[in-house]
Automatic annotation (TrEMBL):
It comes from Psychrobacillus insolitus. Its EC number is 3.4.16.4. Residues 642-699 form the PASTA domain. This is serine-type D-Ala-D-Ala carboxypeptidase. The keyword Disulfide bond does not apply. It is found in: Membrane. GO terms for biological process: cell wall organization; peptidoglycan biosynthetic process. Keywords: Membrane. Gene3D superfamilies: 2.20.70.70, 3.30.70.2110, DD-peptidase/beta-lactamase superfamily, Penicillin-binding protein 2a (Domain 2).
Length: 719
């Protein structure tokens, strides 16, 4: 027995020594086994990058939401004085049915089914996800045992229906909603790689319940949030456009609507939208058409194409506005071209013909320009090829050039196809003294973790298709279509600004060939700019197949959009109205490096208003920058040194506030849209980069609808 137990002892001792020396047992490393047993890992979820407008207002962002889980196993209540599982499925279902998208009976059936299956817990599918913080708190107030909430991130579009086909939407990748958020459409899809963050993790030593062991270290890998994308879209102008499209959609019930607002000096797209559209938070209204129609769909442009035919004739020196021709019809081989007034207006001048939108005038102009030369000008204006906008799948359209008849019909926009974005790009050359600007929607991409600017998009000038002199003359003639008694664009006259543009009525091709015909079967369009003296905005509008009354014309629908959006946007941008805009624009001088007080005197002597940010020393920054055009009585911002005195912001637009905020670096919190009504610190207050200032804005409609204080008149008793 002694030998037996002694042998076992030495065998066991040897085993201990072996394990102690080698650190292995049964071929496995014990340290690794311990690491596996006690090592715990927690994921630090990265946020998807935000999509913001040009002023930094959020268009799309991740927001905190909750997922609902019901613990149904009685095992969860073991060793607990109060229940930790669902004890009353009927009462639980009654409460939950008021907060999630399941009926009371559906919830009861789901709970009972899983209780019978002896499951520990149950989830509620899509209905139990994306629960708001308010709803989570409301459910908790019922003190129902067994209900747990886990935090999650949900993609939120706070503006709702807002440039939806441009922005698109993103969803959780897998059906259960547990994976990462992935872009499915629009910018969310196009820039998915930029927007997607990299999740981090926390690795630590913990017990079986997940609690940190004493003296254990944590290894943290920080999450890297996705890049933020700043657009050229201006939220305020986009809202103006959305409101106008909604009104016209309701009033005229068109088959389609497309509209774009652009800055002709830079090519920035300030707003774009279409109808039908959808609500990105719920995808309600999303049909099979996922195309961004402004860039991916082509149409025959109709008479808006006459702008570029006119420009070609002027540039070639063959435009004679006072020469006459016989209107009504023009025959080429076996084809007769007719004016919309088939009897014509007799012999009229080419200028009157353009104002009346005569097709025959364009046919005669083509003879003067020459077929090949004309087609070359269309290519110069960017037709027949993509604009190069920073969006994918851009259509290039087709220039009908197969024969003499096709080239004639192209002069007035029939037979050839274009995109709305191509029309806007071509119009920048007319508005911008011959300089054609490439359109773009991405302003910059910023890494929020390092503040590094990953992409900074600068305006891109393309080869000028025409001279500055030609552009100015085309602009004058386009203005006459609004002001002339013969002009087809008289309805596009604005209250406060001068307008230049061209109407268009295009036939819509049938799928099997030929064209639809009838007052309600056309595409009505308008391509215009304002103010004429120094165009700040281009607006393109097309309305397809609107329901028109017998006395209504297509320009009624297009002008309702153009006039509203253009007028409100120019006022929002603080563009001076017509009564002072006839004065010649001023080229902004360079004042950086010059004494602030001297700069102020010099600028005000030129008829400009000045906003001073720091009154000491020399000018560090100025806005606008040297060389840019600014209208008389325009506002210039100059930044010097020293203390900053807060101006009176009342009446300022949000755009001007953003300029001031950027230059001054004061943490101004801007609440609302429209124009400033109140500010938290009085004008003249001395502020610094550490002084918080809150500014409240309101739209004109909100200001006008605000209840006014009642005046009380005291009556004096009479003897």
């Amino acid at each position: 027995m002694f030998l037996l137990y002694g042998g076992l002892f030495f065998l066991l001792l040897g085993r201990f020594v072996f394990i102690q020396t080698t650190g292995t047992a049964e071929g496995q490393v014990l340290e690794t086994m311990a690491e596996d047993k006690y090592s715990k890992e927690r994921v630090l979820q990265a946020s998807r990058g935000e999509i913001l407008d040009t002023n930094g207002d959020v268009i799309a962002q991740d927001t905190l939401s909750y997922k609902l889980v019901a613990v149904i196993s009685p095992k969860a209540t073991e060793n607990s004085s109060s229940p930790r599982h669902v004890v009353n499925p009927e009462k639980t279902a009654q409460v939950l049915s008021g907060y999630i998208d399941l009926t009371e009976q559906e919830i009861v059936n789901l709970l009972n089914k899983n209780i019978k299956a002896d499951k520990y817990q149950v989830e509620f599918g899509n209905a139990g996800r994306d629960i708001s913080h308010a709803d989570m708190l409301a459910i908790k107030q019922y003190n129902l045992p067994g209900l747990l909430f886990t935090q999650d991130l949900k993609r939120l579009y706070p503006n709702g229906q807002f440039a939806s086909h441009l922005i698109g939407f993103a969803l959780k990748e897998d059906e259960g909603g547990e994976g990462e958020t992935v872009g499915k459409m629009g910018l969310e899809y196009i820039y998915n790689k930029d927007l997607t963050g990299i999740s981090g993790k926390v690795v630590y030593q913990g017990d079986k319940k997940g609690f940190l062991l004493p003296d254990a270290d944590e290894m943290v890998t920080e999450a890297q949030d996705g890049n933020d994308i700043y657009l050229t879209i201006d939220k305020t102008i986009q809202n103006f456009l959305e409101d106008a499209l909604n009104r016209v959609q309701e009033k005229y019930n068109p088959e389609r609507l497309t509209a774009i607002v652009a800055n002709p000096k830079t090519g920035e797209i300030l707003a774009m939208s279409q109808r039908p559209t959808f609500e990105p938070n719920t995808r309600a209204g999303l049909s099979t058409n996922w195309l961004n129609e402004a860039t991916e769909q082509t149409v025959e442009p109709g008479s808006t194409m006459k702008i570029f035919t006119l420009a070609a004739a002027i540039e070639e020196g063959v435009w004679e506005p006072n020469a006459t021709y016989k209107s009504g019809s023009y025959t080429l081989y076996d084809t007769t071209i007719r004016d919309h007034n088939v009897d014509g207006w007799g012999y009229i001048s080419y200028l009157e013909g353009f104002q009346r939108s005569s097709n025959v005038a364009m046919a005669y102009l083509l003879k003067r320009i020459g077929d090949e030369t004309f087609i070359d000008y269309l290519h110069r204006f960017g037709f027949g090829k993509p604009t190069g906008i920073d969006l994918p799948n851009e259509a290039k359209g087709i220039i009908a050039n197969s024969g003499p008849v096709e080239r004639v019909t192209t002069t007035y926009g029939q037979g050839s196809t274009v995109t709305a974005m191509q029309m806007v790009q071509g119009m920048t050359a007319i508005a911008n003294k011959g300089k054609m600007m490439q359109p773009y929607v991405i302003d910059k991409i910023v890494n929020p973790n390092t503040k590094e600017v990953v992409l900074d998009h600068e305006p891109t000038e393309k080869k000028s298709p025409i001279s500055a002199e030609t552009a100015d003359l085309v602009k004058e003639i386009l203005a006459s279509t609004v002001t002339s008694e013969h002009g087809t664009a008289q309805r596009f006259k604005l209250d406060s600004y001068t307008t230049a543009g061209k109407t268009g009525t295009a036939q819509i091709a049938k799928p099997g060939g030929g064209y639809y015909w009838g007052k309600r079967d056309f595409l009505y369009a308008f391509l215009g700019m304002a103010p004429v003296e120094d165009p700040q905005l281009i607006v393109y509008v097309s309305v397809q197949k609107p329901d028109l009354e017998a006395t209504e014309s297509g320009s009624g629908a297009t002008s309702e959009i153009f006039n509203s959006v253009m007028e409100r946007s120019l006022k929002y941008l603080n563009i001076q109205p017509e009564n002072v805009s006839l004065e010649k624009a001023i080229e902004m001088p360079k004042v950086t490096g010059v004494n602030v007080i001297e700069s102020q005197s010099m600028l005000e002597s030129k008829g400009l208003k000045t906003v001073i940010i720091g009154q000491a020393g020399n000018v560090e920054e100025q806005y606008p920058i040297a060389g840019e055009s600014i209208l008389p009585n325009g506002t210039v911002y100059i930044k010097g040194h020293g203390e900053i005195q807060l101006p009176n912001f009342k009446g300022w637009s949000k755009r001007n506030l953003m300029i001031y905020k950027t230059l001054s670096e004061i943490p101004i919190e801007i609440i609302g849209e429209g124009y400033v009504t109140t500010q938290s610190l009085a004008a003249g207050s001395k502020v610094s980069g550490e002084t918080p200032v809150v500014v409240q804005l309101a739209t004109p409609d909100e200001i006008n609808s605000a209840p006014k204080k009642e005046e009380t008149i005291e009556t004096v008793p009479q003897d």
